[in-house]
UniProtKB/TrEMBL annotation:
Designated name of the protein: Pyridoxamine 5'-phosphate oxidase N-terminal domain-containing protein
Residue stretches making up the Pyridoxamine 5'-phosphate oxidase N-terminal domain: 19-134
Keyword check for Oxidoreductase: yes
Pfam families: PNPOx_N
Classification lineage: Bacteria, Bacillati, Actinomycetota, Actinomycetes, Kitasatosporales
Length: 153
């Protein structure tokens, strides 16, 4: 069996590639928790606006309920060989109150406008406080890209 050595990326390259993936990818795992009911994890479509991640879910969903009760959330892109983990706080916006540029950007990316749906939806905005990224064990050192909302590389 032949193995391929993957080169270790330095911080600036990791940050650039992480931002490219946040801009390009469409699915992310969102983990929330409720003080009494425990953890909950769902895959959602998301849009990165350069400052925050925007997602949308039903206003009465477990995800929305948990985010209102405990806004600290974790997000993960789905590729386990190219890990991107984000920790932040979720803010909930009923569809009628979401900033227009955020909702329009979400609609442009996915071709779906939750504001036009019959049922109530809520947009979740997560501003990253911590971002970690790595590809394999050789990149575990230096995986912290953002701390306390500021890029460290």
């Amino acid at each position: 069996m032949q193995t391929t050595e993957i080169a270790r990326r330095e911080g600036p390259e990791r940050r650039r590639e992480t931002l490219e993936r946040l801009d390009r990818e469409r699915d992310i795992w969102l983990s929330t928790a409720h003080p009494e009911h425990g953890p909950h994890q769902v895959p959602l479509w998301f849009r990165w606006d350069g400052q925050a991640l925007w997602m949308c879910t039903g206003a009465t969903s477990v995800t929305a309920r948990n985010a209102r009760e405990e806004p600290r959330v974790r997000l993960a892109l789905p590729d386990t060989s190219d890990v991107v983990l984000v920790h932040g706080e979720a803010e909930c916006f009923p569809a009628r109150d979401v900033p227009q540029d955020a909702a329009d950007g979400f609609t442009a990316k996915f071709g779906w406008d939750p504001r036009k749906e019959e049922g109530p939806f809520v947009y979740l905005r997560v501003t990253p406080r911590t971002v970690r990224a790595w590809r394999g064990e050789h990149e575990l050192r230096g995986r912290l890209l953002m701390r306390d909302g500021a890029w460290v590389v």
